[in-house]
Design a protein that fits this description.
The protein is an alpha/beta fold. The radius of gyration is 24 Å and the shape is elongated. The structure holds FE2/S2 (inorganic) cluster. The site of FE2/S2 (inorganic) cluster has 13 residues, from loops. FE2/S2 (inorganic) cluster binds next to loops.
Amino acid sequence: MSVIKSITALNKTKPWDSHNQLLECVMVRQDSHNVKTFVFHTSDNSWFVYLPGQFITLELNIDGKTVHRTYTLSSSPSRPLCISITVKANQDGYVSKWLHENMKEGDKVKAYGPAGIFSFHNHLSDKYLFLAGGVGITPLMSMARWMFDYGTESDVVFIQCNQTPSDNLFTRELESMSARTPEMKVALVCERADEYGAWTGYTGRINQLMLELIAPDYMEREIFCCGPEPYMQAVRDILNTAGFDMDRYHEESFTSPVETEADIPDHDDVIIDETNKSQVAFINSGKTVKVSESETILAAAKEAGIHIPNACQFGVCGTCKVKKTSGDVHMVHNGGINDEDVEAGYILACCSNPLGEVEIEY
Ligand code: FES
């Protein structure tokens, strides 16, 4: 355990100079079964200045090789005496596993930064929606901590999504902030409950229906999203389908945070365009219809005089499941179909838009 060796007033010290000062690990906290937070100081009590949501790059020597890895800061610059990174020990994450197994109090490490443009400071708004997938919560936690410390009544809805409740991070801190700041609302979404644990949050993957329930005014919010790419893709699909103004959507991949606007990757997202024409062939019925891409397979079937059983018409109940035998559709469902069925070629007719020529076994 590290002990306090000296105390210097903040105005008597200088900010961290990453070119000339090493970071010293002063605390390692176990946040969940596979996530640890590493807290760093400098040896002469420098303070840290950055925007909440930024990242640092660690330079590590592992097995005689120099490796660099970026980690978003989970700490907030409103608490400038230390910085922290929160790291998940991925099975195939060479550096993250090394950190978990080797980084300890007293270790010194070279680091660069902080850097990055993913911060609500760059997109001020009256209302925010934070969407965190897994350990992608770190920059969003930094922002939430900053908002809480700053003492304003920030209207933020914070949605944390994980596979199971035992993967959730900072839950008590988030709930405590939310309890003391009515403008901050927190929702937890897990794909499934733990085997022997009660679960009272939302179950499944984030979808439009959940979003509507948790943040009915999400269309008015500035959105910040961080997580693995499939998670962010699912969020973008929901927002694109809802017609959200994507200039107000900001994302960060926790594996490759970006430093400048020019580094933001171009997404090849499907944006449904009603001027695009498609053709849907219903093989068993022997009928083919030409439709706009903005119509669903269910609507195309109706136009062809074919009845596909349906109920919710919102991608929830699974009643309209049909098999696609060729072509592509863009499906944004609300949990009514599982990965195995999608893998086997099934789609939900009510929330799938045809892209080009599509054949349906019906
Ligand atoms: S009608 Fe319910 S999922 Fe399509």
